[in-house]
Write a structure and sequence with these properties.
The structure holds 2 protein chains of 2 kinds.
Chain A lengths: L2 E4 L9 H11 L4 H5 L9 E4 L4 E4 L8 H5 L5 E4 L2 E4 L9 H5 L6 E2 L6 E2 L13 H4 L6 E4 L2
Antiparallel strand pairs in A: 1-8, 2-3, 4-5, 6-7
Chain B lengths: L1 E5 L3 H13 L4 E6 L11 H6 L14 H4 L2 E5 L3 E5 L4 E4 L4 E3 L2 E4 L3 E4 L12 E2 L4 H10 L5 E5 L3 H10 L5 E6 L11 H12 L3 E5 L3 E5 L2 E4 L4 E3 L2 E4 L2 E4 L2 H5 L8 E2 L11 E3 L4 E4 L6 E2 L4 H15 L12 E6 L2 E7 L4 E7 L2 E8 L2 E8 L6 H8 L9 H6 L8 H9 L3
Parallel strand pairs in B: 1-2, 1-7, 2-3, 7-19, 9-16, 10-11, 10-16, 11-12, 18-20
Antiparallel strand pairs in B: 4-5, 5-6, 8-17, 13-14, 14-15, 20-21, 22-23, 23-26, 24-25, 25-26
Classes of the chains: A alpha+beta, B alpha/beta.
Amino acid sequence: MKRVYVNEEWCLGCHLCEYNCAFAATGETDMAKALQGVEIHPKVQIEGDGRISFAVSCRHCDDPICMKSCIAGAISKRDGVVHVDKDKCVGCYTCVLVCPYGAVLPAPDGHAIRKCELCTDNACGEPACVKGCPNGAIVFEER
Amino acid sequence: MNYVMIGNSTAAVGCIEGIRSIDPKGTITMISEEPYPAYSRPLISYLLQGKTTEEKMKARPAEFYEKNGVTLLCGKRAAQVDFGRKAVVLEDGEQIYYDRLFIATGARPFVPPMEGLERVKQKFTFMKLDDAKALEAALTPNSRVLIIGAGLIGLKCAEGISGRAGSITVVDLADRVLPSILDPKGSDMVRRHVESNGIRFLLGDSAAEFQPNRARLKSGRTVDFDLLVLAVGVRPNTELAAQAGCKVGRGIVIDEHSATSVPEIYAAGDCCECRDITTGQNRVLAILPNAYLQGETAGVNMAGGEKSFANAVPMNAIGFFGLHVLTAGSYDGKELVETKAGVYRKLVVRDNLLKGFILVGEIARAGIYTSLIRERTPLDTVDFELLKQKPQLMAFSARSRAVKLGGAK
C-alpha cells in the first residue's frame, strides 16, 4: 500500500509539513487565518539537529503493536490505515508506550490520542504533508 | 479442527483473530462465565468516571463472534478438563470435545483473611464490569469509601468514583502507592497529585479488624466507612489448567508459542506466567497487551501456523487526574534520573541494554524506549546521550532510519 516515506537527505527541516498537517485538520480554506496565533498539534513531527532532519509520522505497520495493545479497542485497521476511534479512546496512552517510532501522540485535550491517518480523516484527499513538501523529502508511494 | 476456548476476554479476542488468520473454517466454541461479549476490564474505572459507556467498552464490534464463526456459550462454567478424552465438562454436565483447547481464565481478586470482614455488608472488589456496576449502585454522594490497596486497581477505583463519593480513603500496607511499578520518588509524586484531588492515603498501615462500618488499623487508627473496596491484589485462575495436568507455578506456565506443558492445550493472559526478558525470570505479566499478544500467538499455533511471542516485558500506561505515568521493564541497574517541576524520568541501564524506565508527567514518544527494551538493542549501537535527553529516532543510525522511515529492507 501507499505510505508516507522519508528521504532524509532532502529534508530542509522547514517544518512546513507540520503546518500543512495541522491546517488540513482544521478544515479551513485559509492557512494564515486558520493557524495564526494558534499552537499547532500536527501528527507529523520534524526531528533533527540542524545538520540532519526528517519527518516522523505513523508507519501504518502491517502488524500494528498499538492496535494490539489498545486497552479500549479504539485502534483498528481500515484499508491499511491504522485508525483511532476518538470516541472509544480514553487517553490511557498505552499506544504511546508501545509505538517504536514515537508516532502516536497525546491529543492536545489530553483525553485521546492523535496520529496520522494519511489524511483519510479530513477533506484533503491525500497526505497534506507530502503535497506541501517543497523538496520531495517525504513522498506518498508504494515501496 | 475443533477449537474450544474457556474465558472470553482480551486473550480470547487475540486467540480468535489468531485462529482465523490461518484457519477460516474450524469450529470455535467459547465457554464464558460472564454474560457479556468481550469487553475491556481496565475500562471499568473510566465507566464510573463517565469517560466511556458499556457499549464503547466492547473489545470488538457486535458482529465479531458471528463474523468469526464463534459459538458463544455465555453464563456457562467449565468444571473440568478431561485431557484423556479431550473434553471440557461444564458444570451442568455437558461435555464439549476439542482438538485444541485454549485456557484464558484470567485472574480473581485476592482477599486475604481479615478479622471481622464477614461483618461488612457493603464490600466490593474491582475487576469486572459487574463489580463496577455493584459499586456504582451502592455509591451515593455521601458515601464514605474505604479502599484497601493503593495499587493499580485501588487507585483507578479511587479516581473512578472521585467526585461521586463523600470521602475516599486508601489504606495500604506498603509505604507508597503503586509499589509494583514505581520507585519511591515516582510514587511520591503520584501520591501528592492524587491527594491534591481529594483522596486520603493511610500508608504503611493495614486493616486489623472490621466492624460493619468501621475499620481498626494496625496502627490503632480507626476509619469509618459506608462502602469497602478490597483491592489488595489478584491471583491467577489456574485450577482448571492444573487439574488438566498443565504445569503451574504462580500462573499457568506457557512457552513463547503460548503452549502449556500438556499437548494441544494452550493458555494466555492474566492466568499465565511467562518469561520477562528484562530479568529472565518467569512471572505473571497481567497486562492487557500481553494478553492479546499471547492469545493471538496461541491462536496461530493452534491452527497449525507458526508464531512466537518471545519478548514480553512488564509495562504500564496509567494516569490519574491528568497526570500520566508510563513504565516498562525492570529497575535493577544503573539509574539515570531527571526531575523537574511536574516531571520525573528514570532510565535503568544494565549490560549495555536499556532495562526499564519510569516516566511521570513527560511521556511523549516513550515507545522508542520500550522498543529498545523489547528489541534488546545494544546501547553502543545508538546515540544514548541523545536518548537520555528524550526518546528520538535521531539517536539511531541513518541506515536504521532508512529502514524505519524509508521502507528500506
